[in-house]
Design brief:
17 strands, Arc Repressor Mutant, subunit A, 5-stranded antiparallel β-sheet, 2 domains, Creatine Amidinohydrolase, globular, alpha+beta, binds manganese (II) ion
Length: about 300
């Protein structure tokens, strides 16, 4: 990685850090999920980036992948545990970061379990360390708080224009191949729960990405939407909100569902804790450097 590339990873990280801090301050009971997400996405743009993926705001036993829809009137409830997960891209260089905001003190310990797991996990990473060691560290910290890590969610490598670039970083002490190497970029993201420690896909879909741009047998309208997806988002995940100029919401949703059925798009259903457990998450993006890491998304301070 040359100096210019390194700087772009850092810029993508610092933009997301700022957006996350500002966004977390707006999370209160009665606030619309759509308003939080539109705010953080506009901060990312004001700071010179673009969203790397739609802002996720997942509440209580929703672990991930809820992004508000067009005209979404969902409101943050009282006493909730809220995960805000967002990222920025600068010329395809990406960041991915998340914070948990608790609206009831009874969830403070659950949030702290994921926060400390992230801190400990990041300290274990340097060139040559086994990827399995991170999962072991995360599991140990979360269990020391009396909770379970979510075993089918985890961190991931990032590459330019590639948010999930193949390598998976587990949140439990399972054996996985591979060691960290200099110049690699990873997102580390522990999830803790008082449930079973597993997520399942829910019915709702609010996030999509391009899967196969050359699928045959599309209608003219499907072709139009797919062209817009390719040119606006390339391979990165997107929200229906970012295509609302193309068709009325119901029609747009029909086209997106049909493009998914035909294999042109991939969808990311909402992920729910299987036993309805409450879920916390913290996430940072790191670049592996000699002797350790640089955290591109910095230390998130929420006051
Ligand atoms: Mn991630
Ligand atoms: Mn994330």
């Amino acid at each position: 990685m040359d100096e210019e590339q390194f700087k772009k990873w850092l810029t993508a990280g610092s933009i997301a850090k700022r957006a996350l801090e500002e966004g977390a301050k707006t999370i209160r009971p009665g606030v619309k999920v759509l308003d939080v997400c539109e705010k953080v996405e506009s901060i990312i743009v004001e700071l010179g980036g673009k969203p790397a993926f739609p802002c996720n705001l997942s509440i209580n036993s929703e672990a991930a992948h809820y992004s508000p829809k067009i005209g979404d009137d969902k409101v943050i409830p009282e006493g909730a545990i809220v995960k805000l997960d967002l990222g920025a891209q600068v010329d395809g260089y990406l960041s991915d970061t998340a914070v948990t905001v608790v609206l009831d003190d009874k969830y403070a310990k659950l949030a702290e379990a994921s926060r400390e797991a992230l801190e400990v996990a990041i300290k274990t990473v340097r060139p040559g360390v086994s990827i399995s060691d991170v999962g072991r560290a995360i599991e140990r910290v979360i269990k020391s708080y009396g909770y379970r890590p979510i075993r089918n969610l985890g961190g991931h490598m990032l590459r330019r224009y590639e948010l999930h670039a193949g390598v998976f970083v587990p949140n439990v002490g399972e054996r996985v191949p591979g060691r960290f190497a200099r110049d690699q970029v990873f997102a580390i993201e522990p999830f803790s729960t008082d449930g079973l420690g597993e997520v399942v896909e829910g019915k709702e879909v609010t996030i999509y990405s391009l899967r196969n741009p050359s699928v045959k047998g599309l209608t003219e309208e499907e072709k139009k939407v797919l062209e817009a997806v390719k040119s606006r988002f390339t391979t990165l995940p997107f929200s229906e909100r970012w295509l609302k100029d193309l068709a009325p919401p119901d029609e747009l949703r029909r086209v997106l569902a049909s493009l998914t059925r035909k294999g042109a798009l991939r969808d990311y259903p909402i992920l729910m804790e299987v036993k309805g457990g409450m879920v916390s998450q913290f996430e940072h993006t790191i670049v592996v450097v000699d002797g350790g890491v640089v955290i591109t998304t910095g230390d998130v301070v929420v006051k």
